[in-house]
């Protein structure tokens, strides 16, 4: 049997991400090196990243992208929300951030 030539790839990833990925791949019976190889083959076949990459729709605009008028309009919307009682208790915001982002 002829073995295919291989090259080494070195990548830095967060230890938690690596551990979580290893756990999933182990359950699937796929070695990490095979998963990386499968990903790279899909990059070649699809001529790009093999999954959709988008920003979430609910992402608020960044300060640096706003004009002064847009910034003032955003502040006004926030003030109107406060006046109308459309607020969230800090405890629920903390719980949501912990749940969604691990913060």
TrEMBL record:
Q: Does the keyword Glycoprotein apply?
A: no
- Key word Transport present in the record? no
State the Pfam families in the record: RelB
GO annotation terms (biological process): DNA-templated transcription; regulation of DNA-templated transcription; single-species biofilm formation
Q: Which keywords annotate this record?
A: Toxin-antitoxin system
Q: Which domain of life is it from?
A: Bacteria
GO MF terms listed in the record are:
cis-regulatory region sequence-specific DNA binding; toxic substance binding
**What family name appears in the similarity comment?**
Belongs to the RelB/DinJ antitoxin family.
- Name this protein carries in UniProt: Addiction module antitoxin, RelB/DinJ family
State the species of origin: Desulfitobacterium hafniense (strain Y51)
Lineage from the top down?
A: Bacteria, Bacillati, Bacillota, Clostridia, Eubacteriales
């Amino acid at each position: 049997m002829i073995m295919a030539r291989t090259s080494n790839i070195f990548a830095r990833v967060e230890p938690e991400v690596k551990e979580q990925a290893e756990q999933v791949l182990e359950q699937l019976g796929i070695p990490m090196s095979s998963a990386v190889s499968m990903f790279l083959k899909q990059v070649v076949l699809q001529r790009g990243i093999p999954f959709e990459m988008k920003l979430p729709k609910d992402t608020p605009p960044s300060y640096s992208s706003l004009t002064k008028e847009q910034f003032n309009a955003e502040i006004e919307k926030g003030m109107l929300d406060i006046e109308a009682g459309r607020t969230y208790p800090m405890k629920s915001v903390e719980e949501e951030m912990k749940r969604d982002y691990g913060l």
